[in-house]
Amino acid sequence: MIAGVGAYKLLREWQYPCFMSVLGALLFTLGGTIVSLSNLLNHFQSAVWLPWILLVWERLLISPNWSKFLTFTSVLVLQLLAGSPEIFAMTMGLVFLDGLRVHWTDAAPPIGRIFTLVLAAVLVVIAASMVQLLPTAELFLNSRRQQAIPMVEAMGASLNPLSLINLLIPDKEIDLSEMMGIRFFFAQKPSFLITHYLGGVSLFGICLWLYYGSLREKILLFLLITGTLVVALGGYTPVYPILFHYVPMVATFRYTEKFFFIIYVLLVFVTVKGLGNITSSEDSRRKGFFLIVGAVCLGWLALYLVAQSNPDFLGQLVAAQSGLMSSSVAHANALAAVVANIERQMLLSFGVGLLLCSLKLKRLPVPLAGTLLVCLVYADLASVHKGFLFPSRPGTATDELGIAAVQGTRNSRLFYYPSDKDLHPNSLYVTARPSFDKTLSVWFQNLLPNVGVMHGIDYLQEMDALGRRPYTDFLNFANRIDPQAQVRLLRAFNVGHVVSFRPLTIAGLTPAGEFPEYYSWLYKVDQPVPRAYVVVKSTVEKDPVRTLQRLADNGFDPMAEVILDQEIPVRQTRSIEAKTNILSYRNTFVTIETETNDNAILVFLDSHYPGWKAYVDGRETSIVKANHFYRAVQVPTGRHFVEFKYEPISFKIGLIISLLTFISIAAISLVLLLYKRESVLPRFSRPATWIPVNKN
User: Fold this and answer.
1) Helices marked H in 50-145 — which ranges?
2) What is the largest distance, in Å, between two alpha-carbon atoms of the chain?
3) Which CATH topology does 533-539+561-647 take?
4) Cα 559 to Cα 295: distance, rounded to the nearest angstrom
5) Is the pLDDT of residue 36 over 50?
6) Where are the domains of the chain?
7) Average pLDDT value over all residues in the chain
């Protein structure tokens, strides 16, 4: 709704007719990129604000005043806090480009003012969002992302050049019998953006824009689209590796296909701009209009006739790209679907072409022909993309409890053996080829991270794009050691159960359940350490690898000794006797009762992370990193209460900056209101040639 209404209002602001504004809103909202981003929720939540940002931005440029500036920055804050800094950065680039477009019209604001407004807005947005940005920056500093990510990972989701076919024709279809729920015609695995389809009407719009558009506009947009496309192609061109090494900002992006968002926005703009010429009363170029519409229809017809008469070449292409054997039934079905889709696009093009010609010749009333065109575009986009949105019912994931029904899985951490090569649960391998519904069931019923959060399950593994440094250090080490040493590590890390997708015969693991319907086996770790316990013996080791080596050693007893990154002076005078009891456990507050007969060290197996403070009987004490991941504090003899409170200084400083920003904005607004000086910048009248579309 946010994307559709915003796109409609923006196009109406550009003086397009009502039906054309609805058509453009459909292209932006139901086009392939936005539909794909709905599976990447943070990017989707940011992307939908783009039309509103452009709308309030252009109003600010044409008639600058304080209230419009505040509206502009407010929408920018909403987009940034929606969760995608990449989409926000690309949006600001599009905002500046749109400002240049406005500048090139008559009586437009100077470039210096455009740059000043963009810079001022970004600074206000950053200041207002500091309550979120500073804690996020703190997370970056404690993650692997403070350094450039490896180039192989950055190019891990490069835009496949062949997938550009999907802009004009469906190149896949929903097939819930497949594990991924999709049957691919020209690929073997899903891409970052699952679909790019922009509708059959887009080819008409692009061709008409090439015919009617000004030379300067065509050159600039061609350079923008081509340049962004080269970056989005990532590893498919030699250009991106050069940019990765020499342009610092590029090295911060994961998955180059994200840059296709810019191309998508520009293509929607070009399509609507080209289609806008059908309502023009200009007769001198009418012949060219009909030639273009006819050429597009005949092009689809020719492609269909070639596909029908000579399917061998098309069959070889499908076989080569999809990996299907040319003699298989699946290949024959895929080839038939490709031919059917070409036929579909041919028929669709004839319908769109007929309505465009009717609008141009005014054979039908404009409201009727426009409504029919909108309905046709909606039917086209909806029929292709509906299946990509929640193709399976929610009960597939929620009707059963799976391994959550096993007693004891909630009292300690859970760990996964997804394969024998990588302990990170970003993928798994099973000895079957389940359907899409079954795949979802396997994922949810096995409580793979982070599904178990809904069931109160804690994990040792994490699914986090940033990747905290202690976790990545652990993962790199654990993947290199033998399974027996891995189990000793898990025991020291409070892991009580292990889920595997193959049978395990490792000492220290006891079978606790078998789930053939979920292709998994559940094992209980023998004698895992509790969440909180007391020791008196400690050693100091700052190197992560040597710490992990010691924890995995067969002679190390985690219940008797703790490895710290700095010394806690505890002198043992007697055999330790201790009790620990977790009285309260919340996200930001934990209370533990301890009772010991000597000075000791409380080891609490929750993450050591900046912002946590410890108090023993109300008196603050220092927290030391323990056993690579966790926390340790010194406790004196006797019965005491230890409190852990999450009070991050980054949040407090960010909150102060954000509050001061809002107070300053309120004060400036009040002063301008009192002195009636809301218009702090000279106004610019909207030129008559704002956009070359006849309002009639």
Assistant:
1) 50-62, 66-81, 85-103, 111-128, 130-141
2) 102
3) Jelly Rolls (2.60.120)
4) 78
5) yes
6) 1-147+661-696, 162-391, 395-525, 533-539+561-647
7) 88
pLDDT digits (tens, 9 = 90+) for 463-520: 877 888 899 999 999 999 999 999 999 999 999 999 998 899 999 999 988 888 888 9
Percentage of the chain beyond pLDDT 70 is 94
DSSP-assigned beta bridge partners for residue 535: 601
* Angle made by CA atoms 46, 48, 54, in degrees to the nearest 5: 100
Q: 462 CB contacts (<8 Å, ≥6 apart)? A: 449, 450, 468, 471
- Write the CA distances from 534 to 227, 289, 553, 637, integer angstroms: 60, 82, 21, 12
Bridge partners (DSSP) listed for residue 637: none
Strand ranges (E), 597-681: 600-604, 612-616, 619-621, 624-626, 630-635, 638-646
Q: Which amino acid is at 327?
A: S
Per-residue model confidence as pLDDT tens digits over 155-198: 878 898 988 999 999 988 888 888 888 888 888 778 889 999 99
Dihedral angle, C-alpha 66, 67, 69, 74, nearest 10 °: 140
Q: How many CB atoms lie within 10 A of CB 22?
A: 23
Block residue for tokens 């689209």? 225
Nearest alpha carbon to residue 605 among 452, 489, 480: 489
Task: Please state, in angstroms and rounded to a whole number, the distance separating the CA atoms of residues 324 and 336.
Answer: 14
CA–CA dist 531, 550 (Å, integer): 20
CA 101, chain centre distance (Å): 30
CA nearest neighbour of 23 among 212, 218, 268? 268
Res 689 pLDDT > 50:
no
pTM (2 d.p.): 0.89
User: Is the CB of residue 592 less than 8 Å from the CB of residue 641?
Assistant: yes
- Dihedral over alpha carbons 436, 442, 445, 449 (to 10 degrees): -100
Structure tokens belonging to residue 470:
């202690």
Alpha-carbon Rg for the chain, nearest whole angstrom, is 30
SS3 286: helix
608 to 415, 593, 628, 630: CA distances (angstroms) = 19, 19, 9, 5
Q: What does the pLDDT read at residue 235? A: 86
> What is the three-class DSSP state of 182?
strand
What is the sign, positive or negative, of the torsion defined by CA atoms of 453, 468, 641, 560?
positive
Token representation of residue 406: 């096993």
Tokens at residue 26, please?
């459909």
Report the pLDDT averaged over residues 52-60.
95
CA distance 386 to 550: 54
Rounded-to-5 percentages of helix, strand, coil across the chain: 55, 15, 35
**Cα 324 from Cα 318, distance rounded (Å):** 8
pLDDT of residue 251: 74
- How far is it, in rounded angstroms, from Cα 442 to Cα 427? 12
